[in-house]
Design goal:
433 residues; OB fold (Dihydrolipoamide Acetyltransferase, E2P); Chloramphenicol Acetyltransferase; four-stranded antiparallel beta sheet; globular
């Protein structure tokens, strides 16, 4: 018999740690190779992690809800084959560490924290690796720091890679040492008071996914100059194409044919025509992305996830439909590979499936725009005939809105982008599939 280490997997270059949200097996359970044994939650994805070998769960080293660095041993298997893996986890790659998500990593056992370094003036422009890592503290730590006017980047904490933890911050406040002041931001608002529960209220902690969504939405609002344009589009022609090809498409591919593949194809064409909408802001520079990787927001019972259709410009309409249905289905089943939610360059969200007429969504950083699809429904419209006479007709329509970053996308460009989508939607050829 040999023991195999089960580790917190490396979930892409942009993730350095994850939360073990649920154990699917317990000590003594037999598992097959590739059988899911625990669930993880990161800022990118919730996923089930399979067993590396067949065997029996011998030890569980990380409890549910604990956040640990990638490569950390979370359990051990007793198995007939395989060598014992060294339990000392290798350090994460520098690229992964630099992009680590915000939750602090609790130690495996209680240990005395090292003293917090005295405050110091950050060097350079504040964008060194060390300074970026120190500011990757939890939302609670940043809230406490904001309330007391403390600049986290000017401290070195006891967390992973020098992150400042809540314990570090409270210890520093209790010491009475001079506080490194935080520069006031233009238009910065005061921190809102924390509400207290009333008798009969139910209080539940946020899930890891919900806490990270919350943080990312607030960060995005403070990062991008959000503006939203809305345009009504006539889907009558697309509705007729769907009606003609729907049954054949489903029989041939086994996939449902919704309106979304048509919207995705029209969006891809518009992104080619207006590359600034497929860009990112990097300080005083603009990065114009070569690939068109479309993120599609998928509502889950426990949150929201955005799987990415990579190189969507290389796919036909039927190829888009297959990729879309596959990613959405595996997202709801927690079967996505973490790499499948990374590197999106533009996002589409579809609250219309719940009946919403339109919306003003928050941009998915570091992208500069997000398209919102409202309910697609029949409406009475005034049409002008060849003879110039106006008539009222029943048309299948929807409102599509674009939230964009006004730092680099002008209103005229945003409207031209929406207009391009509108023209494509309203003139799809019958042979689109």
């Amino acid at each position: 018999m040999a023991r195999i280490d089960v580790i917190m997997p490396q979930m892409g270059e942009s993730i350095a740690e994850g939360t073990l949200s649920k154990w699917l097996k317990k000590v003594g359970d037999a598992v097959k190779r590739d059988e899911p044994i625990f669930e993880i939650s990161t800022d990118k994805v919730d996923a089930e992690i399979p067993s590396p070998e067949a065997g029996i769960i011998a030890e569980i080293l990380v409890t549910e809800g604990q956040t640990v660095a990638v490569q950390t041993v979370v359990a051990r298997l007793e198995t007939e084959k395989g060598a014992v893996v060294d339990a000392a986890a290798p350090a994460p790659a520098p690229a992964a560490v630099a992009a680590a998500i915000s939750a602090p990593v609790p130690p495996a056992a209680p240990v005395a924290p090292p003293p917090v370094s005295a405050p110091m003036v950050p060097s350079g422009n504040g964008h060194s690796l060390e300074e970026r890592l120190r500011t990757k503290s939890s939302p609670l730590v940043r809230k406490i720091a904001a309330e007391h006017g403390i600049e986290i980047a000017a401290m070195t904490g006891s967390g992973m890679n020098g992150r400042v933890t809540k314990r570090d911050l409270l210890q520093y406040l209790d010491s009475g040492a001079p506080r490194p002041s935080m520069p006031a931001l233009p238009g910065a608002a005061h921190v809102a008071p924390t509400p207290e529960p009333w008798p009969g209220d139910r209080v539940e902690p946020m899930s890891k996914m919900r806490a990270l969504i919350s943080e990312h939405m607030v960060v995005s609002r403070h990062t991008s100059a959000h503006v939203t344009s809305i345009m009504e589009m006539d889907f009558t022609r697309v509705a007729r194409i769907r009606a003609v090809h729907k049954a054949e498409f489903e029989a041939t591919t086994g996939q449902k044919l919704s309106y979304m593949p048509f919207i995705i194809r029209a969006t891809v064409d518009a992104l080619k025509a207006f590359p600034v909408v497929n860009a990112s802001v990097a300080g005083a520079s603009v990065i114009y992305r070569k690939p068109i990787n479309l993120g599609i927001a998928v509502a889950l019972d426990w949150g929201l996830i955005v799987p990415v259709i990579r190189n969507a410009d290389d796919l036909s309409l039927s190829g888009v439909a297959k990729s879309l249905n596959d990613l959405a289905g595996r997202a709801r089943a927690k079967k996505l590979d973490p790499r499948e939610v990374q590197d999106g360059t533009f996002t589409i969200t579809n609250p219309g499936v719940f009946g919403s007429l339109t919306g003003t969504p928050i941009i998915n950083q570091p992208q500069v725009a997000i398209l919102c699809v409202g309910a697609i429904e029949k409406r009475p419209k005034v049409l002008t005939g060849p003879d110039g006479e106006d008539t009222i007709a029943i048309r299948t329509c929807s409102y599509l809105s674009l939230s964009f970053d006004h730092r680099i996308v002008d209103g005229a460009v945003a409207d031209q982008f929406l207009g391009h989508i509108k023209r494509t939607i309203e003139s799809f050829p019958d042979s689109a599939l």
